[in-house]
UniProtKB/TrEMBL annotation:
InterPro entries: Glutathione-S-Trfase_C_sf, Glutathione_S-Trfase_N, Thioredoxin-like_sf. CDD domains: GST_C_3. This is Glutathione S-transferase. Pfam families: GST_N_2 (PF13409).
């Protein structure tokens, strides 16, 4: 469902690294609620400077509603959006499933500190392993217990925890990315849930933007051996000049093309480097591009 409404504003950090920002953004993208993002680079003066216009917020993500209310913290953002958009599906409609989803989101919001600390989110790499200590392994066991319990108690027959994709799943998306990045040991059922996240259209769009969204952050560097990202393999695209593109207008903005990429011998144009490079990172994540690609 999409809404013909004035957009919300959402302050986010680096897409590759800010797990809280990913969670907040999915609460809009996954449920068709329009939003304008305003990004600030972590560990710089950009974030506190930007947040001066969002008092009393001090962290990302922070939402401003169309009527001007400032709402920080993902769990509060989820509840406020659910109140304002009751038909969006942010929480399950079934009371038992809804209660379960809220339990899951609350524990994820407040817990798993060992996992967060040892394995900070980094969507730009994947490692063969990270030698997780016992505290991290304990967090992983708790995750598996919660995920299995949720599916059993709600009778979910979908890839998601409480039936249709809900805020509970958005809250666990950064954890799924950590399992993928650090090749953390989880069982087959949990890995199916992780793979559902890696293939989720909203997650793929966020990661595609994160791959090109600024320079690497030194804080997140690790010396573990690397492997290929375990999610869907992107289309084999490369940057080229703008000669002989199949389109004269950007598939996203409708503006004249100034940048281009090539896939299987066909050239596609875009209005700026960001539009081109997010498509280069994962073309199949973008419905407007894929409509052009299949035309």
């Amino acid at each position: 469902m999409t809404y013909d409404l004035p957009p919300y504003d959402l302050v986010i950090g680096d897409r590759a690294y800010s797990s809280w920002s990913l969670r907040g953004w999915l609460l809009f993208d996954a449920f068709g609620i329009p939003v304008r993002t305003h990004s600030a680079r972590l560990y710089t003066d950009e974030l506190p400077t930007l947040l001066k216009d969002y008092f009393p917020a001090r962290t990302v993500p922070t939402m401003r509603t169309p009527d001007g209310a400032v709402v920080p913290e993902t769990i509060v953002i989820a509840e406020e959006l659910a109140t304002r958009h009751p038909d969006a599906g942010i929480w399950p409609t079934d009371p038992h499933a809804r209660a379960t989803a809220r339990v899951l989101a609350a524990e994820m919001h407040a817990g798993f500190s060992a996992l967060r600390s040892h394995c900070p989110m980094n969507l730009r790499v994947s490692y063969t392993g990270c030698k997780p200590p016992e505290a991290v392994l304990s967090d992983l066991r708790r995750l598996e217990t919660l995920w299995s319990w949720a599916r059993q108690t709600t009778g979910s027959t979908t890839p998601w925890l409480c039936g249709a994709y809900s805020a509970a799943d958005a809250f666990f998306a950064p954890v799924a990315s950590r399992i993928a990045t650090y090749n953390l040991p989880v069982g087959p059922e949990a890995m199916l849930y992780v793979n559902a996240h890696l293939s989720h259209p909203g997650f793929r769009r966020w990661r595609a933007m994160g791959l090109i969204d600024g320079a690497d952050q030194d804080f997140y560097r690790r010396d573990y051996p690397r492997r290929d990202w375990p999610g869907p393999v992107p289309l084999p695209a490369r940057r080229v000049d703008c000669a002989d593109t199949v389109n004269s207008a950007c598939p996203y903005s409708g503006k004249p093309v100034t940048h281009a990429l090539e896939i299987y011998g066909r050239r596609f144009g875009f209005c700026n480097a960001f539009c081109r490079d997010k498509t280069l990172a994962d073309g199949e994540a973008w419905p407007k591009f894929m409509a052009l690609y299949h035309s």
